[in-house]
Inverse folding.
């Protein structure tokens, strides 16, 4: 059974940092893209960041660019999202996602439907 388990969320003050981790089990994703998405109350799930299978290419939503860094450790089958300079609007449930195919990441990194596996989400709440 494939599982993606996120951790590291919580309550953070605006301007602070949080590090989200995603641990995959049940299969290896070292050959496939992984990503992070988020869903705020009343909003659609939106793309945050994605990383190629090798880690050599990364993509970010404009709203987080410069504040967020995605990385992966293929040996450990994990992905990490480091978020700095947090804003109130970063409050959301954050989801880790993984694909089982090598789709064109440059073109479709933001597409929810390109990812086959999803974690249960971890809440990040930014307070003023």
């Amino acid at each position: 059974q494939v599982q993606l388990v996120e951790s590291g969320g919580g309550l953070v003050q605006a301007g602070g940092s949080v590090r989200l981790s995603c641990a995959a089990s049940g299969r290896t994703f070292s050959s496939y893209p992984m990503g992070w998405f988020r869903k705020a109350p009343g909003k659609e799930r939106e793309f945050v960041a994605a990383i190629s299978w090798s880690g050599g290419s990364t993509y970010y939503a404009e709203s987080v660019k410069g504040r967020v860094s995605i990385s992966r450790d293929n040996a450990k089958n994990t992905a990490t999202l480091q978020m700095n300079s947090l804003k109130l609007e970063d409050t959301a449930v954050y989801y880790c996602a993984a694909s089982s195919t090598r789709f064109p990441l440059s073109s479709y990194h933001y597409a929810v439907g390109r990812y086959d596996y999803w974690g249960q989400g971890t809440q990040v709440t930014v307070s003023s």
About this structure: The longest strand covers residues 18-25.
